[in-house]
Design a protein that fits this description.
InterPro entries: DinB/YfiT-like (IPR034660), MST-like (IPR007061). This protein is mainly alpha-helical. The protein contains six helices and two strands, in the order H-H-H-H-H-E-E-H.
Length: 186
């Protein structure tokens, strides 16, 4: 890109935030969740919402826009990558063969993130389906110390790994979004 976008935010209360507190779907009034599992689930939910917020209002070209060469990273690529990650996590704890890759060989999730509305729609659908499938599998295992799959991965480890993956990629999404249209915040 030859010209950098002007930095801006929609927030008026705190200029370093993405949205005002009253408009933030991640805000919850009242006490924090009770228990470790509920806390982990809330953090995961909030990072999933954050990813959606960082992508809202962008068209297919903007979502597919790459950061800087030689990186293949884009917001759309992150959506596709996280759909694949959800599928992979389910594969780690499956007693049978892991499910096939959604997008093909390594980095195909980023390489195939092209500026096509149909690709964008398919990516969001795949992410929702994979999240729901992984959530459903883990719902049957409320004991965070329970070990699953051939590698005997603790449910706690899997939950923390999921949060870490979303958190890291939401950080990438902050920078990618700022490159696309200059919007900044948390």
């Amino acid at each position: 890109m030859s010209e950098s976008p002007t930095r801006w935010t929609r927030a008026t209360v705190y200029p370093d935030m993405w949205v005002d507190p009253d408009d933030d779907p991640r805000n919850s009034d009242g006490p924090s969740p009770d228990g470790e599992l509920a806390t982990l689930q809330e953090y995961l939910r909030d990072y999933r919402i954050t990813l959606r917020m960082k992508c809202e209002g962008l068209d297919a070209e903007q979502l597919a826009r790459r950061s800087v060469p030689p990186s293949t990273m884009s917001l759309l690529g992150l959506v596709r990558h996280l759909a694949q990650a959800e599928r992979d996590w389910r594969g780690w704890i499956a007693e049978s063969d892991p499910p096939p890759k959604l997008y093909g060989p390594r980095d195909a999730d980023f390489d195939g993130a092209v500026a096509d509305p149909a690709v964008v729609e398919a990516a969001w659908s795949a992410l929702a389906e994979e999240q729901a499938a992984t959530d459903a599998v883990l719902a049957a295992h409320a004991d965070l110390g329970e070990r699953l799959g051939p590698e005997q991965i603790a449910v706690r480890d899997l939950m923390v790994h999921r949060i870490e993956e979303y958190a890291r990629h939401c950080g990438h999404a902050d920078l990618l979004r700022e490159c696309v249209d200059g919007r900044v915040g948390q």
